[in-house]
C-alpha cells in the first residue's frame, strides 16, 4: 500500500502536466479551426511569438506577469494583422489555408532567427519544486495545469454567458441567418482569429519560463495541438477538453510505464484508432449520443 | 486557364490511324496532362537529349548536383499523383520516403555487395508501399476526410521523427546497421545494379543516368496512368467524390490504390536519396522537410505531372541558390513564394505559362506552332 | 402486407420496390413508412409540397442516405445494404437537384468518366460524341462544365447519368430554373430515354412538365405517400389540391 | 413626404448563369401587410433574400425608407430595422430559446427600445422553454421563436418567408393570428411570401403573384376575396 501511493500520486501529477500541455497547446488552434474552418499551420509560431514577447520584455526588466501580458498582446496584434492581410482570403479554402499558413510559419521562424539570433536567454522556471518521497515536481508546471482548467472555465463562460459568445456561436451555427440579424460576420471572424491568436500567445507566455526559447520551439506544441484537435473534433470546448483528458491519461500512463517516447507513440496510436472509429472525433460521438436520445 | 483543361485532344499525326505511333500517343495523351502536341513532344525529345549529353558538358560536381535536383522529382510526383490527381492531401509523403530510405540502408548494410542494394531497393519500395497501404486503409475505409488525412499523415511523419531521433543507443541496430538517432544512419552503400562482379556501381555519372532514366520512365508511365480510365476516375474523385461513387466506382479502393502507389514512388525517391548521399537521418521526417513537397507541387501546379516536376526542380534550384547567395533569408523568400502562389496563382505557375505559351510563341519572329 | 411477403419477391415483379422505407432526422420523419412500386418501363413522377421528403426518398433509393427502417428492393433483390457504387453497377443512376457536374472539367471529360464504364477505349470518342449529340451538347464539348448555362448543366448531368446505360434513372427536378422552351426540350430527352428502355422516377414541381412526361404520379406529403394515380386523377383529387393549398388533412 | 417603406425597382437576380428573378418592381407603404404568392420554385425565397441583402441583384435598386440600400450587406440592413424570418425557421439549434430571442436585438440598434419581454407576452409557450436548446423544441415552437427573434428587435419591416411551411394546420392558424395582431399593435409593416391559400387570404391586404421569376399580376383586396381565382395561381 505505502509503495503504491507515491506511484499513483506521481501518475496523477504526470496526468495533470500532460493535460495542461495538451489543452494549452490546442485551445487556440481549436477555436480557429472549430469556428472558422481554417487550419493554422503557423499556430506553433504564434505560440513562439508569445514566448518571445514575454522573454524579451522580461529581459528588458518587466516583472514576469507583466512580461506575459506583453507576450499575449504582441501575439494578438500579430494575429489580427495576419487575418486582415492573408487569412481573410482563405475562408472556405481549407487546404489552401494550410499551405498558406505553412508559408507564414516558414517566414516567421526564419524572421525570428534573423532578428533575434538563434536563441534568447532563458527565463528560468519560477516557484521551485514540490518534493514527495523520491519524486520531485515543478510547482510551476502544476500551476500550468491549473491555468488550463481556469482557461477552459473562462472560455466556457465567454461562449455561453456573454453577448460576444452567443454571437460567435450563432455565426458558426448559421452564418447567413446571423448576418440577417445584424451580426457583422467578417468582424466576428476577425475577433475570433484574434482570440485564437491571443490564446496561442498566452500558451507561449506561460511556457516561456520552462523552455529554451528558440525560433523553432513552436513545433514542440504543434503535434500535440493537432492531435488534441483531431481527437476532439469540431466542438471547441467539449471536444478539446475530452481529448485533453483522454490523451493526457494515455500519455501519462505510457510515459510513466515505458518512458516519454512511449507516451508520444501511444498518443499517435490512440489518435489513429479514434479517427478510424470516430471520424468526427469526440464531438461526433457526443452528437451521436444526443441524436439517439432525441 | 480554361483552354488547357478543356480542349479535346487533337490527334493529327503523320502516322497511319491505328499505327503503333498513334497508339503510343493515344496512351500518353489526354486532357489530364499538359503537352499534347507535336511541338511539346519535339521539345520533350530535345530536353531528354540535352539531359543525356549534359554530363559531357559539365563537371562531376554539377552532374551530381543536377542528379540530386532531379531525384527530388520522385517525391514531388508522388504527391502530385496523390494530391493533385486524386485529391488526397497527404502531408506525409516524406514518411514513405524516409521509411524506404532507412529500409534500404538496413538491408544494403546487412547484405553486402550489389545483391544487398538490389534487395534493399526492392524491399524498401515494398515496405513504403505496404506502409502507405496500411495507413491508407485506416484512413479511407474509416471515412477520414480531407483535412484529417493531412493531419494524420503529418502526425505519422512526426512520430517517426521522434522515434528515429531516440535511436542513438547501441541497442538500436538491425543486424549490423545502426539507426544512429539524430546523427542518422551512415555508410549506406551506393546503388549497384546487377549481380556479383558484373554489377554496375551507380554513383556520380552513372547515378545521374540512372536518375534521368528512371525519372523518364516514371513520368511516361504516370502519363499513361493518369490518361487511362483509372486516371479519369482519380480526377473524378478529386472534383467530386460523391458523384464519382454514384457512377459505380469504388472510390475508397481507388484512393487506397493511388495512395499506395504514391507511397511506393515516394519510397523510391527516398532510396535514391539515401544511396546518393550514403546517409539518411530523422530530419527526413521533420516538419520542415514534410512541407517541402507541398511547396514544390503547389508552386509548379499540383494538377499536372509536368507542373510537379518543373515546380520541384525550380524551387529546389532556387532554394539551393538562395542558401548560397540569400543566406539567412532563403526560408523567408521560400515562405513568401508559397504565400504568393497560393494567394495569386492557386493553380501554380506551370499551367499559367502553358496557357500563355501560344501567345508567347506567336510573339516570336516567324510565329510558331500554337497547339 | 404480411411478413411472409416481405421476404419473397416474385421474379419479374416491380423493377423497384420500397417497403416501409423510413428516414428520421432527429425528431423529424422526413420519409415515413413509404411503400413505392415502380414497374419496368414506367415514367413515374413524384410530387408534393415543399418538405414532403421527395429528395430524401431518392437519396435513400440510390444509397446516399441510410434508412432508419425499411428496405429497398431492386429487381426483387434486397439492395438496402448495398453501397452506392454497387447500386450504380446494378443499373441505378441519378441526377441531383443542384447539378453535380465536375465543374472544372470539360463537358467531354464529364461524359468520359461515366461512359468509360460501358465503352472500350477504342470507341469512347465516338460514343462521347454520340451522347453529347443526343443532348445537343456537342458544340460545347470543350467548354468547362462550370461555364455552361444552367439548362445545359442540367442536361449534361442527365447525359452523364444516362451514359451509364441505366435501367432506372432518378431525376431530381430536371427542369428547375428552365425556360418554357428548355423545359419542353427536357421532356423530349426524358421520352427519348424512356423509348430506349430506361425506367424513370422524376421529382418535379412544374405541373405542365409532369403532364408532358408522366404515366403515373405519386404524391408525397409529410413523408408519407398521400395519393397515387394518373395525372388526371391526381389533379382532380380535392384532397391533393388541399394539401397543396396548405390546408392539411 | 413619402411613406413608402420598401421599394424594389427593376430587380434582376441570378444564381451563377441562371436568372431567377427578372425585372421585379414592387413597393410597400408603411403599416401595410403585403403577400407574395406563387408555386414552389418560382423565386419567392430569392426575392426575400434580395430584400434583406443575403443576395445581390445583378440589376435594379432596393430602396428602404427612402434610402438606397442596394449595396449594403445584410447585417447593415438588419440594423436599419429589417426583421427576417427565413423559410425553415433557421433558429440557432445549440443556443437556448432565450439566447435566440436576444440575438434579434441588434435590429433595434437604431431605436431606444427593444421588445424582448413583449416576445414572451405574445408567445407564452416560448417563456416556458426559455432555457431549452432551440434545436430541441417542436417545429411550431421554432416558428414562434423565429418570429419572436425578429420581433425582439422592434423591426419596422418584417420579412416573412413561408410562415406555414412544414407546420401543423392548427399552429398555422395561431401563428397567422399572431402576425395579424402584431402588425396591428406594433404598426410593423409586413412582407410575406406564401403558397398557403388560407394564410394569404387571412393576412394580406394585397398580394403580388410571381411565376417564372416575374411578377405576373397584383391582386387587391377584392380580388383576394375570390377564392377560386386565387387558388388557380397556386394549385397543381
State the share of residues found in helices of chain D, binned by percent: 25-40%
Biggest sheet: strand arrangement of chain D: 6-7-8-3-9-10
Count the DSSP helices of chain D.
Answer: 10
Assembly type: heterotetramer
What is the C-alpha radius of gyration of chain D, as a whole number of Å?
17 Å
Q: Structural class from helices and strands of chain D? A: alpha/beta
| Unreliable parts of chain C | 1-11
Q: Given the helix and strand composition of chain C, which structural class is it? A: alpha/beta
- Output the CATH topology of chain D: Rossmann fold
Radius of gyration of chain C (CA) equals 18 Å
Largest β-sheet summary of chain D: 6 strands, mixed
Task: Lay out the secondary structure.
The complex is a heterotetramer of chains A (294), B (371), C (249) and D (236).
Chain B: H1 2-6, H2 20-28, H3 38-57, H4 60-85, H5 93-110, H6 114-140, H7 146-165, E1 173-174, E2 177-178, E3 185-186, E4 192-193, E5 200-201, H8 204-226, H9 229-239, H10 241-246, H11 251-277, E6 279-280, H12 287-300, H13 305-326, H14 330-344, H15 349-363
Antiparallel strand pairs in B: 1-2, 3-6, 4-5
Chain C: H1 3-7, E1 16-25, E2 28-38, E3 43-47, H2 54-62, E4 69-74, E5 77-78, H3 84-89, E6 92-95, H4 107-115, H5 121-134, H6 150-163, E7 168-172, H7 180-195, E8 199-203, H8 207-213, E9 216-221, E10 224-229, H9 231-236, H10 238-244
Parallel strand pairs in C: 3-8, 3-9, 6-7, 7-8
Antiparallel strand pairs in C: 1-2, 1-4, 4-5, 9-10
Helix pairs in contact in C: 4-5, 4-6
Chain D: E1 4-15, E2 18-29, E3 33-37, H1 44-52, E4 59-64, E5 67-68, H2 74-79, E6 82-85, H3 97-103, H4 116-122, H5 124-128, H6 139-151, E7 157-161, H7 169-186, E8 189-194, H8 197-203, E9 206-211, E10 214-219, H9 221-225, H10 227-234
Parallel strand pairs in D: 3-8, 3-9, 6-7, 7-8
Antiparallel strand pairs in D: 1-2, 1-4, 4-5, 9-10
Helix pairs in contact in D: 3-6
Keywords:
heterotetramer; A: 294 residues; mainly alpha; ABC transporter involved in vitamin B12 uptake, BtuC; 12 helices; 2 strands; 77% helix; globular; D: Rossmann fold; 10 helices; 27% strand
